[in-house]
Amino acid sequence: MIYKRSSALFKEAQKVIPGGVNSPVRAFTAVGGEPIFVEKAKGAYLYDADGNKLIDYINSWGPMILGHAHEPVVKAVVDKAENGTSFGMPTEIETEIASLAVSMVPNIDKIRFVNSGTEACMSAVRLARGFTGKDKIIKFAGCYHGHSDSFLIQAGSGAVTFGTPNSPGVTKGTAKDTLLANFNDLDNVSKVISENKGEIACIILEPVAGNMGCIPPKEGFLEGLRKLCDENNILLIFDEVMTGFRLAKGGVQELYGVNADIVTFGKVIGGGLPVGAFAARAEIMSHLAPEGPVYQAGTLSGNPLAMAAGLAMLSELNNNPEIFTSLEKKTAYLHKELATVLTKAGVTHTINRVGSMISVHFSETQVTDFKTAALGNNETFKKFFHGLLAEGVYIAPSAFETWFLTEALTYEDLDATIEACGKVAKTL
Ligand code: KE4
To answer: Taking the alpha carbons of 330, 335, 339, 342 in that order, is the dihedral positive or negative?
Structure first.
């Protein structure tokens, strides 16, 4: 693969954008080398600035569940743009997508749209604090809820890759209200709660973790959190920015049958445009301004362009639930065949998967939390990443991320990926 133009573009970008990127994980720092600049994308394929065609397993970190430049989404955006892109006034389409989202996701009556997953999670925590009158929050080591101060404590994703899980700039005053627990460890959560009796507003988690690789909740973990929250008047926040509208129509609440008090969304809900959202039963959402006292706002929140993309995306998923089963089958096929070729090549590895979220860890230890995720051999991961890239397969440029499959992938694409993996496995 040639990356000459990407390299030149990167040099230019670095002159005017910190690190040459607008989000750190794109900089390839975790895997070495220089970032690939994308020219365009269609379906399951990226076309980079040097004309290389790549099979895309990141899909903009989740949103492109139906493939890049998906016709109905593009058409919806173009049609909407011709009539204005943002008014700062309410529009009918916001009610349409809100009603659809509420009909798809269990246990929510109302939803507020914002512009990113970070904004959704940040606002959800403020709402939980306003609703309960309590200050402290519990998050889990390795989970990532965006870059709001309260979350940059032992955060996953790019934060852990850059060794700044506790970012400079986050004050001690803020950090003291964020308590850390271990994912999949109910005893530990119970201990943290008992040490902070009556002070905890909410527990926020990725119910299927995706920012330390893909880590499913252990049997009973989500149910146990639900019980602890009910017993201690704590709100349970499911951060479904990754899993929402991806793992099932109703997300993890539907998949595992456990109800959260507040759910946050991003990625798929915006169809690739900047949209985040948070939702809950009316009793909680009625605390949000202008109905209630908890303030939250945004100039471009619910703008018609982003709503048009999100509505087109959610409508297609809602009307064609077989997409979720097809995606599950494709990812299960990839999972099985990847394991086969890596085992055949004698590569020590473990693969985690939930639905169309999958991650490969070069470790003999099963990955169930941040500690075990960190045991993976990062040198091997780097070789795996670059080897696949050279074969035209683009996976997450970090071991602390998840792959997100798109329905646009064909079984020929999957077989090409597996063949590439077999070739690379021999070099590991
Ligand atoms: P954004 O602010 O990036 O839209 O969403 C933050 C967020 C919140 N919650 C979860 C579970 C998330 O995964 C994210 C963002 N995910 C990362 C990928 N690990 C986005 C990629 C990036 O940071 O560039």
So the answer is: positive
